[in-house]
Specification:
The structure is a single chain. The chain has helices at residues 14-27, 31-45, 55-93, 141-148, 152-158, 164-171; strands at 114-115, 120-121, 178-181, 186-189. It is mainly alpha-helical and 192 residues long. It has a two-stranded antiparallel sheet with strand order 1-2. Helix 4 packs across helix 5 (152-158). The model is unreliable at 95-134 (pLDDT under 50).
């Protein structure tokens, strides 16, 4: 019986030949049928070869380009989210920059002061404390980010690092080092 099939003759190591015979028995196939099945399954798992006109390459390239577009879009969206989170964080944690004034207690509410020299209580008067003013420029995260020419997220990410002063002076247009004061959620210059 004539066929268009090509003949294949091969020598196998004995352990591989035994496994092949076992496969033939399990599948209840002749060795030529089993070999065809194995080779067909093996080659169907491999990526298809590029056709002469390169259509497979073009398809893969188009797929990669599409994935890159999606990745770029996601990167932009993540950046926008980071900026939004930084703005929300700033709005939650920024306190108004207002002069702080210590107000004296009213005389009727004052607590008598103990004086060691009189071994007792003073006359009950309470001296007024001077007004404490915060002077000099102070910046929010957004303001400092704009001054340094970076993203708010970048400032937020670096503000508590040990090298923040050096990092900020390297980006400041006047070479000023900045420090972050957690209690006020503001940035202050260290040198002018």
């Amino acid at each position: 019986m004539a066929t268009d099939n090509q003949r294949l003759v091969s020598s196998l190591p004995s352990d591989l030949y035994e496994r092949f015979k076992q496969f033939c028995d399990e599948q209840q196939m002749k060795s030529s049928e089993a070999l065809q099945k194995i080779l067909t399954e093996y080659f169907s798992m491999l990526p298809t070869t590029v056709s002469e006109n390169g259509t497979n390459r073009e398809t893969r390239l188009a797929s990669i380009e599409k994935k890159l577009e999606i990745l770029d879009s996601l990167t932009q969206r993540i950046s926008a989210l980071e900026n939004s989170f930084a703005e929300m964080h700033e709005q939650i944690h920024v306190h108004p920059s207002v002069e702080v004034e210590e107000t004296p207690l009213e005389e009727e509410e004052s607590v008598p002061e103990l004086h060691p020299e009189t071994n007792g209580v003073s006359n009950g008067t309470h001296s007024q404390s001077p007004t404490v003013e915060v002077s000099g420029p102070r910046y929010t995260i957004a303001e400092l980010a704009e001054r340094l020419g970076v993203n708010k997220t970048t400032v937020s990410r670096n503000k508590n690092k040990d090298n923040f002063e050096e990092w900020s002076s390297g980006r400041d247009p006047e070479g000023i080092s900045w420090e972050y004061r957690e209690e006020e959620q503001l940035f202050y210059p260290l040198n002018s």
